[in-house]
Amino acid sequence: MRPRLPDKTVGIEGRPMKKVLTVSELNKYIKDLVSGDMILSGLWVRGEISNFKSHYSGHYYFTLKDEKAVLRCVMFRSYASAVPFLPENGMKVLIRGYISVYERDGQYQLYAEEIQPDGVGALYIAFEKLKNKLRAEGLFDESRKKKLPYMPDSIGVVTSSTGAVIRDIINVLTRRFYHVKIKLYPVQVQGEQAAGQIAAAVRRFNQLGNVDVIIVARGGGSLEELWAFNEEIVARSIYESKIPVISAVGHETDFTICDFAASARAATPTAAARLVIPDGVALRRDLARQRRRLHRGAAALVRHRRERLDNLAQRSFLARPLQILLQPRQNLDQTVYRFRSAFSRQLEQRRHALAGFAARLADLNPMAVLGRGFAVVRAEKGIIKTVRQLSPGQTVTLQFQDGEAEAIIQTLEGE
């Protein structure tokens, strides 16, 4: 049914005027006309994105174009939030939506409800974009990954409580090491709620701190079924985890964002159970082998030490242990004797030298000269050494060995 126009209006001369509409009425009429078209109310359009803008409100505004024409498009936040990738200029896409008129501007535009890359699956594009983004942020750096414990006492498992995965993990773990503790945090492994539950489980284990390692696991499936493990919220929860995380999602050929963010990847959940803890049987076998090697090594060491001790016991110094002390004592006595002899010789030499010095000093003593009949003549100016220092009638003092006497010079003879 076509939309109803407003009633006719009478002109100035009284004649009726046909279809006199306001602009808003016309735009509304065209909008109703376009909205009622079955083809335009639900269609797919192929084109290239240009002038893309992501508004702060969450809406997308862009233009879709081909070689000959352009089409304005809008995608409201309720639909944009479900797009698994961020559209970009130049991206070729398929858009599902409907055509309607924006009454205020009088322009028709495509109201998009779904966007898919043209020629490549949307999920694959979203996977690659998120992987590149998180890699650039360093979430996949090997240097930041935690080392797996060699012998964990308690293992946390994040998976469905009803699937075969948890049964396989429990069977392998208990078979490999019977006393290991397993703590299950049940979550949905696909669907809209799965990603949030998986991230919450990883964070909860970190809050409790009651496990040594975490296994995030699910069985195989399509890319769509495994998509929860490609969500950014899951990757960030694993990156922020202080507990090492093993990703065991899908089959060996399946890769998820979870695998890249985890401390380690296991090809399957069963492989994760084998990776997380050593085989108890093999460990006991290896322990027994090491024990035998230790016993053989200890026996060989004891035998070698005993042989060495026997060889030492046969040596002469052990047969006469006091000889070890007597020889140094004899050496000391000889050293003391040599020291005393050398000291005595040095002392005698010093005594003879001193006696010679004393004799020389005695010869040089002026009193000794006086004892041989000589006297020292002194005047007021000092000792008289020559006749020229005297004059007739001068009084002088004569010093003998045993005293002094005064004399008066009578005559002088000499030069």
Give a written overview of the molecule.
With 415 residues, the chain is an alpha/beta fold. The protein folds into five domains: 9-119, Nucleic acid-binding proteins (OB fold (Dihydrolipoamide Acetyltransferase, E2P), Beta Barrel); 139-144 and 151-278, Rossmann fold (3-Layer(aba) Sandwich); 282-314; 317-354; 369-408, no CATH class. The chain has helices at residues 23-35, 77-80, 122-137, 164-176, 194-208, 232-240, 257-261, 269-276, 280-313, 316-319, 323-364, 366-370, and strands at 9-10, 16-17, 43-54, 60-65, 70-75, 92-102, 107-117, 154-159, 181-186, 213-218, 245-249, 264-265, 376-379, 382-383, 395-400, 403-408. Helix 4 packs parallel to helix 8 and helix 5 packs parallel to helix 6 (232-240). The chain is elongated.
